[in-house]
Amino acid sequence: MGAIQTLIEEVQTLGTQALQNFLALSLVQQILLVVFFPFLYSLVWQAIYAMRNDRVPMVHYWIPWVGSAVVYGMQPYEFFHQCQQKYGDCFSFLMLGKVMTVYLGPKGHEFVLNAKLSDVSAEEAYTHLTTPVFEKKL
Its domain of life (predicted)? Predict the structure, then answer.
């Protein structure tokens, strides 16, 4: 228990020092840091994601965390069609912090609907949706 308490105190000390250093910056520097850092992080993350050959292509976005949610929400069919033309049948996009992977076309249809029962589970897919409505009795 003593080691945990020491760790908590060290984290609190580092957090206090970081806050003091942040507050010592000018207002312009604080605003630039708060606004610029998420965009920089997002661009670096997208570049690293694009370098990996073991993943499907990622649709580029400019607004961190929001990703492609606005475009997808306004015109989902056009969004899928444009992405399919640019990236192919299988691609990913960021929507409200979650990476969504899409597999379109006949192969995508077959991949989803003809999956082995040992690989997919309708219960797992719908539990988080039905439990708040019907409780755990169903």
Answer: Eukaryota
Q: Over 60: is that where the pLDDT of 35 sits?
A: yes
Q: Which residues contact 107 (CB under 8 A, 6 or more apart)?
A: 89
* Structure tokens given for 124: 């797992």
Q: How far apart are CA 91 and CA 71, in angstroms?
A: 16
Give me the pLDDT at residue 63, please.
87
pTM for this prediction: 0.66
Check if the beta carbon of residue 72 is closer than 8 Å to that of residue 95: yes
Show the tokens assigned to 120. 């997919």
**80-to-35, 70, 99, 111, 132 alpha-carbon distances in Å:** 30, 13, 15, 18, 31
**What is the Cα–Cα distance from 18 to 6, expressed in whole angstroms?**
18
How far is it, in rounded angstroms, from Cα 105 to Cα 109? 6
Burial class of residue 93 in the structure, from the number of CB atoms within 10 Å of its CB (0-12 exposed, 13-18 middle, 19+ buried): buried
- The residue among 113 and 92 whose pLDDT is bigger is 92
